[in-house]
From TrEMBL:
One of its GO terms (cellular component) is cytosol. Catalyzes the ATP-dependent transfer of a sulfur to tRNA to produce 4-thiouridine in position 8 of tRNAs, which functions as a near-UV photosensor. Also catalyzes the transfer of sulfur to the sulfur carrier protein ThiS, forming ThiS-thiocarboxylate. This is a step in the synthesis of thiazole, in the thiamine biosynthesis pathway. The sulfur is donated as persulfide by IscS. Its main location: cytoplasm. It comes from the Bacteria. This is Probable tRNA sulfurtransferase. The keyword Transcription does not apply. Gene3D superfamilies: 3.30.2130.30, HUPs (3.40.50.620). Its EC number is 2.8.1.4. GO terms for biological process: thiamine biosynthetic process; thiamine diphosphate biosynthetic process; thiazole biosynthetic process; tRNA 4-thiouridine biosynthesis. PANTHER family: TRNA SULFURTRANSFERASE (PTHR43209:SF1). The keyword Nucleotide-binding applies. Keywords: ATP-binding, Cytoplasm, Nucleotide-binding, RNA-binding, Thiamine biosynthesis, Transferase, tRNA-binding. Pfam families: ThiI (PF02568), ThiI_fer (PF22025), THUMP (PF02926).
Amino acid sequence: MDEIILLKLGELVLKGLNRRSFEDKLIGNARRRLKDLGQFRVYTKQSTMYVEPLEETCDMDGAWLAMSRLFGVVGLSRARACAKDKDALLACAKTYLDGRLRAAKTFKVESKRADKSFPMTSVELSRYVGGELDEAYPNLQVDVHHPELTVYLEVRDYAAYVHADPEPGAGGLPVGIGGRAVSLLSGGIDSPVASWMIAKRGIALELVHFFSYPYTSEQAKQKVLDLAKLLTPWCGHMVVHVVPFTAIQEELRRKCPEELFTVLMRRFMMRIAEQVAQRTGAGALVTGECLGQVASQTMEAMRATTAVCSLPILRPVVGMDKEEIVRIARKIGTFETSILPYEDCCTVFTPRHPRLRPVLGELECAEAALDVDGLVAAAVDGIERLRV
C-alpha cells in the first residue's frame, strides 16, 4: 500500500457532544485544500484523520504542505500502511524508515493498539520490533528517554501503520466552526498576523482594506492582495473588500482639527467595517492594534474607536511586542511582503502632533461638522470585492 498522511486532532477531541460537527468541518476544509492535488479519501477514526491517496498521480508533497497549514491539526506524519501482523510491521519499518534508521544513533519504538483483537499488547509489539531493529542496525542503541528517532507503530481498524517522529501541525480549530468576522487588513506587519491568529481559533474571515487613490498607489493595493493570498493556505479562500477612502480623508482634512485626524479616521474605518459585517453575516471585527504602539493605539484612542461599533472588536495582538508579531509573520510567510515600501492610507495626512488621549465628546463634536452617514454610505457603495 502507498503512503498515507496521518493527522492528529487537537482540542477537537475534547468537544463532547459537539465533536462530530468539528470533525465534519475539519474534513470539509481538508478536502477543499486537496481538491487540486489529486483524488484523496479523507476520514476520521479514533482521534486521527486519514488522508489516503487514491491515485498514483496524487501530489503527496503538496498534500503534506496543505495539511501542515490546516487549523485543527496538532501533528502530522507520513506513514506507510501494512498488514496487521508483527512481521509485516517489522518489514515495513525496515523498508520505509531504512534511511532514518541508518542515520540515527539512538531510537525507541512506541506502539498503539487501537484494534484490541490484535494478539500482542502494545508493549509486546514494541519490544519485538525494537529488538529486531536493534539487531539489524548496529549503529542503533535503545534510548527510551531521549531517543534521536522514535519509530511509531499503530494497529488500527483498517490496517497497521508505520511512521517516524510526527511534525507539529497548525493547531487551533477548523476555520469556519466559530462563525465569521471582518478583519481590517492594512499593508503592515500586524494586521495579517492578527487575521491569522483569529482564523486559528476557527473564524472564517472577510477582509477589508481602505484604499486612498491617488495618495496611495496601485502597488500598495496589490501588496495587500498579495498578503491576502499568502493567508489563504491557512485561512481558506477569502473576499477582500477594497473601500474607497479618499473622499473621507479629504473631508476630515478640510473640516476637522489636525490632531484628531487619526482617531477620526479610525472611527470611520470601524463604521464601514461594521457595515461590511452586517452585509456578510459576520459577528465581530478584527484589528491588528497593539497597545501603545502608535498614537491611535492608546487605551483612550481604542475606546474612542470602539464607541462607534455595536459588534465586538477582537484584537489578538494587543498585548504582544513587535518581536513576537514579527516572529509569527516570518512563520506564516507574510513578513517580506509586509515590509515592501508601499504606503497605505494610514500614512496619508498624518498629523504632526496626534492626540494621544482623545476625549470622546471632543471627537463627536468634530464629527458634527461632517455628513457621517453620507460619507459612510458612499464608501460602502463604492466597495470593490475581490476573491482570493
